[in-house]
Write a structure and sequence with these properties.
- There is one protein chain.
- The chain is an alpha/beta fold and 366 residues long.
- Helices cover 44% and strands 13% of the residues.
- It has 14 helices and 9 strands.
- It has an 8-stranded parallel β-barrel, surrounded by 8 helices.
- Helix 3 packs parallel to helix 4 and helix 4 crosses helix 6.
- It starts with a helix and ends in a 7-residue tail after the last helix.
C-alpha cells in the first residue's frame, strides 16, 4: 500500500472524540441573505473547523436549488484554500456523470497545486438535481446513471489523474494539467501527487464498488439513514486491499445542530425541514427563517415527513449532540463523522460547530 495515500485518507480523532470529526457544507442561503453572505459564512466555518481540529471540510454539488449555493465545488474549494492552511478540503461530492472526466482531473489537479497534500476528490453518480437540470448540464436528454457507465467514467478519470493510459489508447497522449506529466517532462519538478479518490453513495451500488476497488467510502446517512448499516456492511464485506488502502475506511455524513438550549436547536432544524418539504413538493426556495418555520401549518402528510426528517437530525444542547454522535458512531462503526449543520443563518451554524468542538474538548489550534 502507498502509505502516504493511506495517511491522506485516515483521520485522527481529537479531544475526547472516538473518531475524527469533519464538516460537510451545502452553502445554504436563507431568506433575506445573499449567496455572497453564504459563501463568507463558508469561509468562517472553514477557519473555525481548521482552528478547532476538525479533520476535513467538504463541499457538496447541487444545482437549480435557490437555497443551496454549492453548484461549483471546485471554485468554492479554491476560495477556501486561499483562506486556510492545514485542513483537508474536498468534494462531497462532485457528481461525475455531470462532467467530462478530463475536466474534473484538471480542476482537482489545479486544486492540488494550490493546496498540496490536502485535497480530496469525492465522487457521486447521482445528478445532484432533477432530471431536466441534469439534461441541461450534460447537453443531452439521455441520462445514464447505470451500473455500466459510472465505473467506466471512474476508470477514465483515474487514468487522467495518474497519467497512465496504456500505449495505443486514444487518450494516451492527452494529459491532465496540472498533473503527473509535469514531473516526467524534461526539467520537470511538479509533484506527481494527486488527490485521493473517494466514492460517495446513499445505497449499496457505490458501497460495493468502493470495496471492490479498495477505495474509501462516504455514505449519506443524513438523508438515507435506513440504508447506512447495510451499505457499510456491504462495503466492508466487498473490500479488497489496494495500493490506496489496506483496510476499509468509511465516513458517514450526519445532520447535527447544537444550540445553547433545546428550544433554539429545534427552531433552527425546523427551517431545514420546511425547506425539504418544499423541495420534495416541487417548490424549492431559500431557507425560511425560524419564525416562518414555526408559524407554518403543516398538513398531516407534511407533518409525518417532518417528523421522520427531524428524527435523523441530531439536535439539542452540545451535550445532547455529543451523546447522539457518539451513539451513532458506535452503532454504525463509522471511521469518521462528517457533520452538516443546516439552518437559516450562518450565525447558528457557526455556533453549532463551536459548541460541538467544545463538547469534545477539541483544542484551539490557533
Amino acid at each position: 500500500m502507498d502509505e502516504n495515500r493511506g495517511d491522506e485518507i485516515r483521520g485522527t480523532a481529537g479531544g475526547r472524540a472516538s473518531v475524527p470529526l469533519s464538516v460537510l457544507d451545502l452553502v445554504t442561503v436563507g431568506q433575506g441573505r445573499t449567496a455572497t453572505q453564504a459563501l463568507r459564512t463558508s469561509v468562517d466555518i472553514a477557519k473555525l473547523a481548521e482552528n478547532r481540529g476538525f479533520h476535513r471540510y467538504w463541499v457538496a454539488e447541487h444545482h437549480s436549488m435557490p437555497g443551496v449555493a454549492s453548484s461549483s465545488p471546485a471554485v468554492i474549494l479554491a476560495h477556501l484554500a486561499a483562506h486556510t492552511e492545514r485542513i483537508r478540503l474536498g468534494s462531497g461530492g462532485v457528481m461525475l456523470p455531470n462532467h467530462a472526466p478530463l475536466v474534473i482531473a484538471e480542476q482537482f489537479g489545479t486544486l492540488e497545486a494550490m493546496a498540496p497534500g490536502r485535497v480530496d476528490l469525492g465522487l457521486g453518480r447521482a445528478p445532484g438535481t432533477d432530471g431536466a437540470t441534469a439534461a441541461a448540464l450534460r447537453r443531452t436528454d439521455r441520462l445514464n446513471e447505470g451500473a455500466d457507465d459510472f465505473p467506466q467514467q471512474l476508470a477514465e478519470l483515474t487514468r487522467f489523474l495518474d497519467d497512465d493510459f496504456p500505449d495505443g489508447h486514444p487518450y494516451a497522449r492527452i494529459h491532465a494539467v496540472p498533473g503527473p506529466v509535469q514531473a516526467t517532462s524534461p526539467g520537470g519538478v511538479q509533484s506527481p501527487g494527486r488527490p485521493p479518490v473517494w466514492l460517495l453513495g446513499s445505497s449499496g451500488f457505490s458501497a460495493r464498488l468502493a470495496g471492490v476497488l479498495g477505495l474509501p467510502f462516504a455514505f449519506a446517512h443524513h438523508f438515507s439513514a435506513r440504508n447506512t448499516v447495510p451499505a457499510l456492511d456491504l462495503y466492508r464485506e466487498s473490500f479488497k486491499p489496494s495500493p490506496v488502502l489496506d483496510a476499509p475506511y468509511a465516513l458517514i455524513g450526519v445532520s447535527a445542530l447544537a444550540a445553547d438550549d433545546e428550544r433554539e436547536a429545534r427552531r433552527q432544524v425546523l427551517t431545514g425541514a420546511l425547506s425539504m418539504v418544499r423541495l420534495r413538493t416541487g417548490r424549492p426556495g431559500l431557507v425560511p427563517t425560524p419564525e416562518e418555520a414555526e408559524a407554518y401549518t403543516f398538513s398531516p402528510v407534511e407533518r409525518d415527513f417532518v417528523n421522520d426528517w427531524l428524527a435523523n437530525i441530531i439536535h439539542g444542547t452540545a451535550g445532547e449532540v455529543r451523546e447522539g454522535l457518539d451513539d451513532l458512531a458506535k452503532r454504525t462503526g463509522a471511521d469518521e463523522l462528517m457533520i452538516t449543520a443546516n439552518a437559516h443563518g450562518g450565525e447558528a451554524r457557526l455556533r453549532s460547530y463551536e459548541l460541538i468542538a467544545d463538547a469534545y474538548g477539541l483544542p484551539a489550534l490557533g
